[in-house]
Structures are given as C-alpha cells and as structure tokens.
Task: structure prediction
Amino acid sequence: MSSRPPGCGGQEVMYFHGRRRGQDGVGAIIDFLLANARLVIGVGGAAILGIATLAVKRLIERASRSAEENKPITDGWEELKLVGHSPKLLKKEIEGVVMKKITAATRRAAASPALGESVCVSESVCVSGSGGVCVSVCVPLQERLECYYAARVCVSVGGAERAQRRALDVATEIQSFLRARHAHMPLGELRLAGSLLDDLQVITPDHASLLVHLQVEESLWSLVRGEDTFLSHPQLSLIRRENLEYFPRGRSYWDHFLVGGYLSAGGVAELLSRSLTEALNWPSLSATLEAEVWPVLGGGDITLEVRPIGRRHGDQEEGEEPLFLRVLPTVQLGEEPVCARPRPPCEHAWFRSQYPREAGLLASLDQSDGGVRRKLLKTLKAVCRISPALRPITGRHLSSLLLHLSRKAHDWSPQAFSGRFLQALEELIGYLELGHLPSYFAPAVNLLQELSEEQIEQMGFMLYCAHTQPDILLI
Result:
C-alpha cells in the first residue's frame, strides 16, 4: 500500500422520466453498443459515443412527447457539442455536463428510499418449442442480486475450511523454521488473519495473511503515531527506542535493527524475507505439506504461493485453487498492532491497518440491527473483482464507503438490499467525482489518491453506465 495520504435497466431512464427502456429494437442495440464500446474504441472514444448517443436519444424522446410536455430543444445539443472537442478537453466537459446530471440523479434517488425495491433488470430467457426464440424478462433487482450473491459471491464452507487448513499448516512449518534459524529472535505465535478468517472473502478463497508477532520490550520501545512525526501520515507510525541512557544498545535483540533511534520496519522485513526465500528448503517443505509452496519474488511484501500437488484433470475443487499467503512482521504496543510493510517515503515506518476496526464495526452494526452491510460489502467486492474497469477498487475502499453510508441510511434490513446496493453505487460515483474518499477511521487519508486519473475515469464511466443498467455489473 502506498504511504501517500494516501442502477439497471429499470422502468425509468435517469434523464427521461416516465419513459420505458427497451420498447424498440433500436434502443436495445444502442444500449448494447454503448456498454461494449469501451472495449473497442477506448475510454475517451466510448465516452464521446455515449454523449452523442444520449443527445440523439433525448431528441427522439422529445419528438415523441405531447406538445405540452415539449421543452426547448436547444438544450438537447448540450452534450452533442462535446463530440467536436479534443480528447484532452473531454474530461473537463464531462465534469461540466454529464457529472452534473449524475449528481442531480443521485439526489433524486436519495429522496426516493424505495427506488431499489422497484427497479428491474432485463434477462433473456429462451422459450422452449419456439424455434430458439429468446424473450426479455424483467427480473426485480432484489431477486437478481440474491441470485448473484448465491452463485458468484459466496465462498463454499468446505473451500474456506480447506484454505484455512493449508494456511495454518504453512504457518506451523514457517514458525518452526524461524525459531530454529533465529533461535535468539523473540517471536510469538504465527497467527492467521484477514478476510478469509472473517468470512469476507469472495468468489474463491485465494489469499490470507500470516502475522509474525515480534515480542518487543514495552519498557524499551514506544509507538509514535505518524501525525506526531515528520511523516504527518495517520496510517504510519514509528517505533522509538527509549531509555538509551539507562539501557544502552544491546539490551534488546531488536537493537540490531535500530536506525536513527527507531526500529526499522524495512530491516526486519528484509531479514525475514532473505531467511524465507534463500534458506528455507522449499522442495522439502512442499513434500511435507503435500502442496507446492514457493515464495513469490518481486514486490515489497513477503508472499508465498501454495498449490496442491497432483490435481487430477476435471477435479479442481474451489479449495484447490492457488492460495497466496502474505507474511507480515507485526508489533503490538498498546491497543493497535502495526505491521512491517516498507513503502516510500520512509521504509523504516510501520503501517497501521484499519481493516480489523472496519471489519469489527461492520459485524457489530449488522448484529445490532440484523443488517446486510457485510453481505453488501461482499457483493460489491465481487462486482469490482470481476469487472476489469473496477478492479482498482478494493475492500479497503468499499469498507469505508459502507461505513460512511451507514451514517446516512438507516434501513439495512434484507428487504432493503437492492436499495442500499444502488445507493452505494451512487455514493461511489460522488466520491469519484470529487476524487476524494476519506478513510472512515482516518479521515485525513484519501483512499483514492493512489489511483491515477485514467483509472478514476474508467471507473466513473463504468458506474455511469451502471446507473441506468446495473445488470451490466451482475455478470
């Protein structure tokens, strides 16, 4: 992680009130072309095509209305004028025209709490005995989301248990190796952590974290928050050596990694990385665990890949997918643990993850009101993971998004699932428009700052299309 501060072809179209989508074949073809244009002509070209198509459709809609409903036709060319502009000016023009309309639609949706419950998505069904003819059926969004959650989002209980067993087996072997090779290093128990343990993993159980607890003397070391140092970053901390005048260097094992009076996260991570990648006998470990275990080279984190040995063709169960384990040296001084994930601007700083607090709060809120926050989080994670344009959005973005949304929305009952899904998409569009999504527990951290403008543009375009047809996300 960088250390820089840091819906649905329904009964109504967003901009044309009271008009039904899909009444003619031309509209359906246009919608299909628009949804797939970005794959062919790129983001900028697809956006230009979308704006031009929108303008033409608005002119057609106005021409079909009664005389008393007609408005001046000149404003219908507002979006069409953008077509003649250069790609460099496209982003500014979209912000000036299209994003205004998205914001207005978001406000209208927020004023209608029952919007999500009345939205339908189109689904093609082939009629038997009709010569292969397929008809379009309107399926309520709530029902579509429930089917998507059951079929695509949920990880099977057996698959999750197998992945946890493999992770724990690897942790046991690594702990034995480290204690034998570094007999004088005060290490605690290796502990499994992350979404796999908290039942927040989606699609397939393929990653987890192994926390290597470093036992440091509380009388010799203290945690200094990043806000109180030159880092000025609320998610970074420094571990300072105390009482050097009374307890000189050498009294603590961790004095070997002292840099400028602070315990270096980079130094500890480098030692463990070299030990695991260079000294551990991986073929022997693989034979012991009956699984291929190898370090993943490159990147700043210590990552291991675990693959089952001797998979038979056609017998690939969910739990037999590759499992990636990230080994994180961890120190706990006080209530919040910090882990070694060396990143610029200071490789000696320790990272304070907000994941345990966010996951705990979401579970607590759901338990108090029988809500579907965790269910919605998993659905959004699967949507973003499956859609290439939305992959930069991860669980840390979505957790903060839903916690912010929990302050605005009060109905989180299972019947409100589709409504909260649409509202979450609308909120995300608003944050992308601003280019700012504050971390829930560290508001000074902008979770979108690490994303490029091109990534934000792609995500904004995808979510803009999903406003009128959210079924493009449920594939």
In short: DSSP finds 13 helices and 13 strands in the chain.
